[in-house]
# Entry
Amino acid sequence: MANRKVKIIATLGPASNNSQTIQSLIKAGVNVFRVNMSHGEYDQHRKSIDLIREAEKMLDHPIAILADLQGPKLRISKFKEGQILLEKGQDFTLDLDPQSGDKDRITFPHPEIFPHILSGMTILLNDGNIRLKVMLTTHDKVITEVLEGGPLSDNKGVNLPDTELPIPALTKKDKQDIDFLMETSVDYVGLSFVQRPEDVLDLKRILGGKKAILSKIEKPQAIDNLEEIIDLSDGIMVARGDLGVEMSPEKVPPIQKKIIRLSKKKGKPVVVATQMLESMIDRSTPTRAEATDVATAVYDGADAVMLSAESAVGKYPVESVEMMAKIISAVEKDGQYIDNLKRLAEKADHDVSDSITGAARQLSETLAAAAIVTYTATGLTALRVSHKKPQAPILAMTNKVETSRKLCLAWGVIPSLVHDLKSLDEMIQKAVERCKKADLVKEGDKIVVTCGIPFGNPGTTNVINVEVIK
# Structure
């Protein structure tokens, strides 16, 4: 794990939600576990979190937990027969009538949406497999023509790519879930279906800085507000599942690159997610196209890549993580990737802390240092070094367990929990000790150390030091 810079997120589910598998997943390379609040009860989520923390303690390795909120997912209601078959060219109506649906109509129980659906708009059902064109609308009825038909069953999702939904990103369920999560040790809260900067601000007010926010970009409207959303978030996820439903497939790759590029410019960790090794749900090896997809995300500069169903319900959860780690490692050994890192590296700003971290990167490469070591309370210094994309691993020592866990998402950072340090000499001694423990150095190697003096004042990185390992 110390030799791999890009991090791996794995979703927990029936296939992996037990102590033995969680430990195996960590050993295989998982840095962050995702708990999906769309499924399961609170007792099960609490058990999952406890199992992760037990494994973290047993393996003596910080692990982050991402709790993913469900968000405002729109759905149709139920059919009399449970399923119908829509044919191309037929009329199909969405309305507020509570009666069970049939081949001609279905209940769409979202009255607040109807005034915003206009003639000519597209409505997508069942993850985009069914496409409707709006022909006529009233206050309680939308009559459409079926452009692409197929089977349609109860409670399938509805996407409206042509309009900004007049609903907040946080539903009543989400707020109840947040109340639960505030009492747990999760580190990141995933905000689903972000459309506006105000959506992120709403969550920030509720969390009060106690949890970090990972905003999921899965609505076309979010792209129009991308820069502001990134500024307000602690990290960004390219959620290609719903994003790929609401816009045509050929648009997703350049959008993915745009999100990664802007996130790196803003200095925020960015995750690429959804369908990365999907064939490994049922097979022990991925397709070549999937391997290339993971590699492309790494080449583009992603801080982390994520497994969803592969680790949650798949037959090969551990093998999926092992494969993802192999792909990442292969890319990181490629000279082209190293060249890309130099291009992605941010130039130093004018403040002292950022100048010091930029100098640490340059010095580490000039001296061929074995590691860069930071001492950080909030994690900001380690993140700044991470954004510079140094070739040397970044050992981030912190006395705060919450900081060590959050840094599990940051590119190239190896979090290490230490007690309070009182002096530069003590910090250097601990840095050497921890580098040896992590098997990062050998006798004669050099390490570059950064910290802030006096100790205990967050955001005051003002010292850079080179130490030779004896």
About this structure: The chain has three domains: 7-72+168-337, 74-159, 345-468. The chain is about 35% helix and 25% strand. The first strand starts at residue 7 and ends at 11.
